[in-house]
Task: inverse folding
């Protein structure tokens, strides 16, 4: 596992935390940070033995929610599970898989909360800036947490995902939905995005004018700790939403140029958009249209980003 930096404080009190998606890129960073802060972690995973090898013996790995020990008073649930969005075309079968891994699993979590004799105080549930749909080239309006969704699959998926999580509020749980931008780190989508640049074949994708909203993985975990502290201090049920993106939003052309500069590589091979549209269909909009998403809530609350600019974020991992 990769050690997050710096060490974070989630809570002065030791908590029992249930994490789904703990073996994923963000999940591993979160689990390591929780353990370093002295919390007990239960990981819900399809492969408990593999997860135990990956996460270490300090983490209790379970295959079903029925395996949560009766003596464990889970106070915080962090829901990060979900099949990878980018990949095969969004056929009806693929859409069903994505809904099942996000909406279905979240509904199962809420059903478990309904049955639990001791209710968690907080549910931090992942979502994505895909909630906002796409932002056409030339539209520079920052999208804050109040921007509406659009009638397209990715937007519908995130909306349904958040609506499923929000049902936990009826049981006295504080629900916080986290809309992630592109997470910058040594794993996840970034290594594949950087590969052409590392090979000296980088350049703008499509028009290069589409917005790219991103956040460093350390700030993902840091913002979770921030959200956790404020939610538990409020001591009230309800539903909130936060954009997990950095203050600096770049165009795809600026992203490629910055990455090339950090990696000391050239950046002049443009990649046309039509092959992506041919191969990926509607999914290509995520790469060719983009969104300019602002972390309005985090900024208004004074969250201090460790990596507010892209160059610094990329230097930290390359």
Result:
């Amino acid at each position: 596992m990769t050690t997050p930096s710096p060490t974070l404080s989630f809570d002065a009190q030791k908590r029992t935390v249930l994490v789904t998606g703990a073996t994923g890129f963000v999940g591993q960073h979160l689990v390591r940070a929780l353990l370093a802060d002295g919390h007990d972690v239960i990981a819900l995973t399809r492969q408990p033995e593999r997860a135990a090898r990956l996460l270490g013996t300090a983490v209790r790995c379970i295959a079903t929610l029925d395996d949560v020990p009766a003596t464990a008073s889970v106070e915080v649930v962090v829901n990060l599970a979900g099949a990878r969005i980018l990949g095969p075309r969004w056929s009806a079968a693929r859409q069903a898989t994505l809904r099942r891994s996000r909406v279905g699993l979240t509904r199962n979590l809420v059903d478990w909360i309904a049955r639990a004799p001791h209710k968690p105080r907080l549910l931090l549930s992942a979502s994505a800036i895909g909630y906002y749909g796409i932002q056409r080239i030339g539209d520079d309006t920052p999208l804050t947490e109040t921007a509406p969704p659009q009638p397209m699959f990715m937007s519908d998926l995130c909306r349904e995902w958040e609506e499923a999580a929000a049902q936990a509020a009826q049981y006295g749980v504080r629900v916080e939905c986290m809309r992630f931008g592109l997470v910058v780190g040594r794993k996840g989508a970034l290594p594949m995005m950087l590969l052409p640049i590392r090979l000296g074949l980088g350049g703008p994708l499509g028009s290069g004018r589409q917005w790219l909203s991103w956040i460093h993985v350390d700030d993902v975990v840091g913002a979770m700790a921030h959200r956790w502290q404020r939610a538990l201090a409020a001591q009230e049920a309800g539903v909130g939403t936060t954009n997990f993106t950095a203050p600096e939003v770049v165009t795809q052309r600026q992203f490629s140029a910055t990455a090339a500069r950090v990696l000391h590589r050239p950046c002049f091979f443009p990649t046309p958009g039509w092959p992506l549209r041919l191969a990926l269909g509607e999914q290509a909009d995520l790469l060719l249209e983009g969104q300019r998403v602002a972390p309005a809530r985090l900024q208004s609350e004074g969250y201090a980003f460790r990596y507010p600019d892209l160059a610094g974020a990329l230097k930290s991992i390359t």
Q: What stands out?
A: The chain has a mean pLDDT of 93.
